[in-house]
Automatic annotation (TrEMBL):
It comes from Flavimobilis soli. The central subunit of the protein translocation channel SecYEG. Consists of two halves formed by TMs 1-5 and 6-10. These two domains form a lateral gate at the front which open onto the bilayer between TMs 2 and 7, and are clamped together by SecE at the back. The channel is closed by both a pore ring composed of hydrophobic SecY resides and a short helix (helix 2A) on the extracellular side of the membrane which forms a plug. The plug probably moves laterally to allow the channel to open. The ring and the pore may move independently. The gene is secY. It is found in: Cell membrane; Membrane. One of its GO terms (cellular component) is plasma membrane. This is Protein translocase subunit SecY.
Length: 427
């Protein structure tokens, strides 16, 4: 493996791509520590997040920049939200589905729409964050803004929105000139940056060494499970019939459709976490002595509560099926196979093939959704059992993202090495 790293750095163009990617990741982290104009950095540094699930989720994807009110405080969340919204709108707006099927030109148009929506969401979220910070609801007990004038607030909104645009630009640069998917690598950077401090806080607590060892063992086991499942796939055999085009014979080859066990990735976990955090956020604005606020705090704000766990599992399973249905269309795949003379052995082309693919996808998604729910819950339950707390940055969502992005990046480097007749990382 270390030899493969050495060969990668000895290849000039691959070395440039890797170094460029690392440089962009470093710049992203540097921007997370530059405070926005008008922010009292010393006061912000003294704040402790507590048990705010929504704040913890957004702060996680910003690499800790949110609680420091830095220029990159919004992090990658506006782009993630915009991308998810554009994908969901494909089901509702036929124009978006047509663009998706138009190939590269249509994808370029959808990407442009995603950029516009990212900036719009950036303005909305920046306005919300600045308003909550000025009223003391973002960081309770802390006065993070030195000047309460309107132009300072407007400047902060402008800077935070511009920071979102810069992050989006950096991600696209990494995708174009570096290695791997830029946005995924920035998310990876944000999450991985919080690991050392979290491990240090665990090690410095009571019985810190035993807790730290327990957490490390859990992480190793969960990472092994994620790697095993993410690399697993169901291969549906496809046979192409021979056909004459002019004087040449085409077809007659055998291939397969690779279907991953977890086709939806980490999206269902992010959806479930975000939606479950909404009642907690609404409860913060209500009367703290009201019955519904107390009920929310006892059942939906505590990640260890039985109702929270049950709803969390149910929502992960639902969104796994929902998102898979959006991203994989059996009818479209069957039509494309029929168009090019392909068929599944033993299954008639056309409608029977689509029904067979739908049957296979449903079974695989059932196993994949249960796997996602287990991976999302195991770290939380282990943390609660060890007395560490449930809001540790390397929960199930974080570990899935880090491992998944790491695997995809290694695969891309491996493919680049294979093209140059080198032995890659994966054997």
């Amino acid at each position: 493996m270390f030899g493969a790293f050495g060969r990668a750095f000895r290849t000039p163009d691959l070395r440039k791509k890797i170094l460029f990617t690392i440089a962009m990741m470093v710049l992203f982290r540097v921007g997370s520590f530059i405070p926005a104009p008008g922010v009292d950095y010393g006061a912000v540094q003294s704040y402790s997040m507590g048990d705010n699930d929504l704040l913890a989720l957004v702060n996680l994807f910003s690499g800790g920049a949110l609680l420091q009110l830095s220029i990159f405080a919004l992090g990658i969340m506006p782009y993630i939200t915009a991308s998810i919204i554009i994908q969901l709108l494909r089901v509702v707006i036929p124009r978006f589905e047509t663009l998706h099927q138009d190939g590269q030109s249509g994808q370029a148009k959808l990407t442009q729409y995603t950029r516009y929506l990212t900036i719009a969401l950036g303005v909305l979220q920046a306005t919300t964050i600045v308003t909550l910070a000025r009223t003391g609801q973002l960081l309770p007990g802390i006065d993070p803004i030195k000047d309460d004038s309107w132009w300072t607030a407007a400047l902060m909104i402008l800077v935070l929105t511009a920071g979102t645009g810069v992050i989006m630009w950096m991600g696209e640069l990494i995708t174009e000139r570096g290695i791997g998917n830029g946005m995924s690598l920035l998310i990876f950077t944000s999450i991985a940056a919080s690991f050392p401090s979290a491990l240090g806080s665990i090690g410095g607590s009571n019985n810190g060494l035993s807790k730290l060892l327990g957490v490390i063992v859990m992480i190793v086991l969960v990472v092994g499970l994620i790697v095993f499942v993410e690399q697993s796939q169901r291969r549906i055999p496809v046979q192409y019939a021979k056909r004459m085009v002019g004087r040449k014979m085409y077809g007659g080859t055998s291939t397969y459709i690779p279907i991953k066990i977890n086709m939806s990735g980490v999206i269902p976990v992010i959806f479930a976490s975000s939606i479950l955090a909404i009642p907690t956020m609404l409860a913060q604005f209500g009367d703290q002595s009201a019955d519904w606020v107390v009920w929310v705090g006892r059942n939906l704000a505590d990640p260890g509560a039985p109702l929270y766990l049950a709803v969390f599992i149910a929502m992960i399973i639902f969104f796994a099926f929902f998102y898979t249905a959006i991203t994989f269309n059996p009818d479209e795949v069957a039509d494309n196979m029929k168009k090019y003379g392909g068929f599944v052995p033993g299954i008639r082309a056309g409608r029977p093939t689509a029904e067979y693919l739908d049957y296979v996808i449903t079974r695989i998604t059932s196993a994949g959704s249960i796997y996602l729910a287990l991976v999302a819950l195991i770290p939380t339950l282990v943390f609660l059992a060890l007395g560490v707390g449930a809001n540790i940055p390397f929960g199930g969502t974080s570990i899935i993202i880090v491992v998944g992005v790491g695997l995809e990046t290694v695969k891309q480097i491996d493919a680049q090495l294979q093209q140059r007749h080198y032995e890659g990382f994966l054997r």
